[in-house]
Amino acid sequence: MLKFSSDIQYLKGVGEARAKLFRRLGVADIGSLLRLYPRTYEDWSKVCSIFDAMPGEQCCIKATVCSAVTHALIRKGMTVYKTQATDGESIMKITIFNNRFSAEKLKEGEEYLFFGKLQQSGYTREMLNPQIERATTGERIRPIYPQTQSLSSRMIEGCVRRAIDSVEELPADVLSEDIRNRFALCNYAQALENIHFPQNEQSMLAARRRLSFEELYVLQTGMMLMRGRNRKSTGYRIAQDYSDEFFSLLPFTPTGAQQRAVREAVEDMKRPTPMSRLLQGDVGSGKTAVAAAVAYTCAKNSFQCAIMAPTEILAAQHYRTFCKLLEKTDLSVELLVGSTPAKEKKRIKQGLAGGEIDIVIGTHALIQKDVEFRSLGLVVTDEQHRFGVAQRSALGSKGINPHTLVMSATPIPRTLALIIYGDLDISILDELPAGRQKIETFAVDGSIRQRAYGYVRKHLDEGRQGYIICPLVEDSEISELSAAQEVADRIAKEDFKGYSVGLLHGKMKAADKDRVMRDFAEGRIQLLVSTTVVEVGVDVPNSVIMVIENAERFGLSQLHQLRGRVGRGEHKSTCILISDAKGKTAQHRLKTMCRTTNGFEIADEDLKLRGPGDFFGARQHGLPEMKIADLSSDMELLKQAQRAAQETLSDDPALRKAINEPLKKAVIELYEAVGPQGMN
To answer: Predicted confidence band at 632 (pLDDT cuts at 50, 70, 90)?
Structure first.
């Protein structure tokens, strides 16, 4: 018998070599194998006759092989195997290409299940390369798992069956009997059996609901525990509001939404508990000015402020903005990033520890162990979904319960914001500053590319600047670097010969990125060929035209962020989406971009189309990975799990009761995946 924690290689039929393949799927032990849930299912339970099967649609047919299997070499490296099968009323041909193992399964006179698509030519019915099982295995719903190399779904299915049958004891159920009864959920053993080997669709759905509820319940409990720490009293309660003084420094009049957000944040900082606020705003809504206003009031109350951005480009841009806004004040502002020279780093770290520096702006460099603050009163994280949970909490731990302002230029549907940010107070900038131009957006196919490039040249000739965004590179293709370099080289020699063309991509050194962006901002580069590294925060008001290649490969929210790099000045701006995709989803996505520039409307559409896993790009930045819950469709379940988590913590705030021990363990395990959180 094996334990839930036993190494996967000790499961019968695995061994060292296959264990390495399992590890590529994130499966290291028996427990993680049983949590490798099927990505979909094949329904072998509904057997139909050969006559009734619909040509071109997947079906399962029970039939007896009625002729010997023949084989022929039709060309070098290609062998075709043929036989016939009957269900007693009709006959179908079975054709198998290059799969001797599958063909040799078939014995004349024996009954099998054939799963695949039936083809019809005249009166002849034929199934090409069907999946084949002996009829004695039973007609059932079969799981389909994520696969890698030679580790097929069928192999994984067999391993999962053996694991369930041989595991000594399942962990204690995370959900108490009371919660299971109240929310009509099956127990863990039933859920595990029926998610992998459901008797019918109802049992599979019941298992999925139970496991999704558990995942959301654990996620919410963990987030509430982390935030509970921030509700302790703070030593940085501000005494005086300096917002009006800050506004008088601005060369523009802040929008009503900006003034409201600043007022809400300052009111929070006057309270004895630390502020915990999310500042959400569409592209160009002026979040940086709000952050500067809040930081100004905090610094004038003699507390230090730290602003953390996900990239050096964005950190440097914030630094320049803060310096400009605060140049007439006596506040000191510094930039601390990975590429800051060692001598400068030492000076800045001494200034922070001694309290001489009021505001520091930086990247992950701010959370290094040797960075100390004398009185860190405010922590601001920008584009915060790009940070891991551990990274965000690490900066806050450098003060004693400092105020926290979280900024996001990725509009998030309110339902999703509730789960990601839970009990954070939310300020929304729903008003664009005066002078912001509406960006006209057009979707065209590749046949219009030359006309689009001509339109770009027209703007460059008028003294404006533009972007060409490279197609998003998929795993199986060439690297992001190669793709970007190829596009830049080609257009510099051909379509934009004689123009100054720059290249920006994620593999460049920070100093090289900064140099390119500086050259672009100062007009030395007319056309910037870039990957999605420009998605966040890059602000060049003279940029008025953007072409996005293979636009169907990007999510709606990502397209919206990219588009937001133009339209930042006084000139009319245009975004051209080039795509040859004919699929329904791709066409809907492109039409949405052309129809609206409202980030929140786009975010809602994006969530419906792609779900939250892809909503933030390749991974859920900072969110523990959801293995089965679907935040885009499980909203009612989320609300129930949230309520259960609140009730549990209300009764047992530190999860010290024995009944909650399995829950506490599950919370620690979930959050360890994104960094140690000190939950225990």
So the answer is: low
- What are the helix (H) ranges across 361-413? 389-396
Q: pLDDT tens for residues 301-326?
A: 999 999 998 888 788 889 999 999 99
Rounded CA gap, 429 and 528, in Å? Answer: 29
Q: What is the identity of the amino acid at 578?
A: I
Distance CA 128, CA 93 (A): 8
What angle is formed at CA 228 by the lines to CA 222 and CA 232, rounded to 5 degrees? 160
Amino acid 481: pLDDT = 63
Q: How many CB atoms lie within 10 A of CB 82?
A: 16
Lowest mean pLDDT among 239-243, 250-254, 434-438: 434-438
Q: Which residue has the tokens 């940070």?
A: 387
Cα dihedral 609, 612, 614, 616, rounded to 10, equals 120
Name the 3-class secondary structure at 85.
Answer: strand
Q: End-to-end distance of the chain based on CA atoms, in angstroms? A: 30
Q: Say if residues 526 and 460 touch (Cβ distance below 8 Å).
A: yes
Cβ atoms of residues 107 and 136 within 8 Å: no
Distance CA 227, CA 389 (A): 11
Radius of gyration of the chain (CA): 30
Residue 567 tokens read as 């339209």
CA–CA distance, 406 with 263 (Å, rounded to integer): 16
Question: Which tokens hold the place of 454?
Answer: 């001509």
* Maximum CA extent, the chain: 93
Query: Quick one: CA dihedral 670, 673, 675, 680, positive or negative?
Result: positive
* Backbone torsions φ then ψ of 97, nearest 5 degrees: -100, 125
Question: Lowest-pLDDT range, 83-97, 160-174, 619-633?
Answer: 619-633
Does the pTM surpass 0.70? The reply is no
pLDDT 10s digits, 141-178: 989 998 887 888 989 999 999 999 999 888 999 999 99
- Indicate the average pLDDT of the chain: 86
Q: What is the pLDDT of residue 649?
A: 92
674 close to 386: Cβ distance less than 8 angstroms: no
> Of 611, 616, 617, nearest to 585 (Cα)?
611
- Is the separation of the CB atoms in 568 and 538 below 8 Å? no
Rounded Cα distance, 477 and 488, in Å:
18
Amino acid at 301: N
In this prediction, residue 617 carries a pLDDT of 40
CA neighbours within 13 Å on the CB side: how many for 47? 12
- Residue 209: CB partners within 8 Å, gap ≥ 6? 185, 637
Write down the architecture of domain 243-429 according to CATH: 3-Layer(aba) Sandwich (3.40)
Q: Which CATH architecture has domain 439-615?
A: 3-Layer(aba) Sandwich (3.40)
Separation between Cα atoms, residue 364 and residue 310, nearest integer Å: 7
C-alpha separations of 33 from 20, 145, 223, 347, 538 in Å: 13, 11, 26, 50, 43
Do residues 51 and 90 touch, judged by C-beta distance below 8 A?
yes
Instruction: Say whether 653 sits in a helix, a strand or coil.
Output: coil
Domain 46-139 identical in fold to domain 243-429: no
pLDDT at 367 over 80: yes
| CB distance 234 to 399 below 8 Å | no
Q: Residue 112: is its pLDDT beyond 90?
A: yes
Q: Tokens 């063309």 identify what position? A: 501
Domain boundaries, the chain: 46-139, 178-225+652-675, 243-429, 439-615
**Architecture of the domain made up of 46-139:** Beta Barrel (2.40)
| Residue whose structure tokens are 């339209």 | 567
The pLDDT of residue 21 is 92
Q: What token pair was written down for 418? A: 């509730």
- Please report which helix (H) or strand (E) contains residue 113, including its range: strand 111-121
Task: Report the residue count for the chain.
Answer: 680
